[in-house]
Amino acid sequence: MPAQTFTVNGEKVTVDAPDDLPLLWVLRDLLGIRGPKYGCGIDVCKACTSHLDGEAFNPCAVPVAEVAGREVTTIEGLADGDTLHPVQEAWLEQDVAQCGYCQAGQIMAAVALLKRTKNPTDAEIDAIANVCRCGTYFRIREAIKVAAARVG
Ligand code: FES
Ligand code: FES
């Protein structure tokens, strides 16, 4: 089995895995990093949204060989020690989560959006299109606006 080496949450890791194994399986099953959730496995729901070299991506749709030498960040790598990321703080203040299943992906998508767009419009926020079966979209919008005012 080939050795796959990449960086995740600031740490260099090497795992034995077939080149075409989706990264989500590597993260969750081989590395025990379970913040990125398995929803659809086909690049639709975005429950697994994480960052690849600082941009949002869905690791269920990327073979592990494609991230060789690159930097993967999951929700576990977002806080700075005990200090939450401003988007995480805003999420708590706005009490966004219901069941919570989609929320790691929502937060990672929001962080990536705010990197690209300082003060996103409602349409730009809705365009991230991460699915939430609990319907927390209104509070997601509010939390992103609160975070935007702080990080902008
Ligand atoms: S699990 Fe649905 S997009 Fe990755
Ligand atoms: S909070 Fe339940 S699916 Fe989004």
Throw out a few tags for this protein.
152 residues; alpha+beta; Ubiquitin-like (UB roll); DNA polymerase, domain 1; 5 strands; 14% strand; globular; binds FE2/S2 (inorganic) cluster
Describe what you observe in this structure.
With 152 residues, this protein is α+β, with helices and mostly antiparallel strands. The protein has two domains: 3-77, Beta-grasp domain (Ubiquitin-like (UB roll), Roll), CATH 3.10.20; 86-151, [2Fe-2S]-binding domain (DNA polymerase, domain 1). The chain contains five helices and five strands. The chain has helices at residues 23-30, 86-93, 103-116, 122-126, 137-151, and strands spanning 3-8, 11-16, 50-52, 55-57, 71-73. Strands 2-1-5-3-4 form a five-stranded mixed sheet, covered by helices on one side. Strand 1 and strand 2 (11-16) form a beta hairpin. Helix 2 packs across helix 5 (137-151). It is globular. It comes from Streptomyces boluensis.
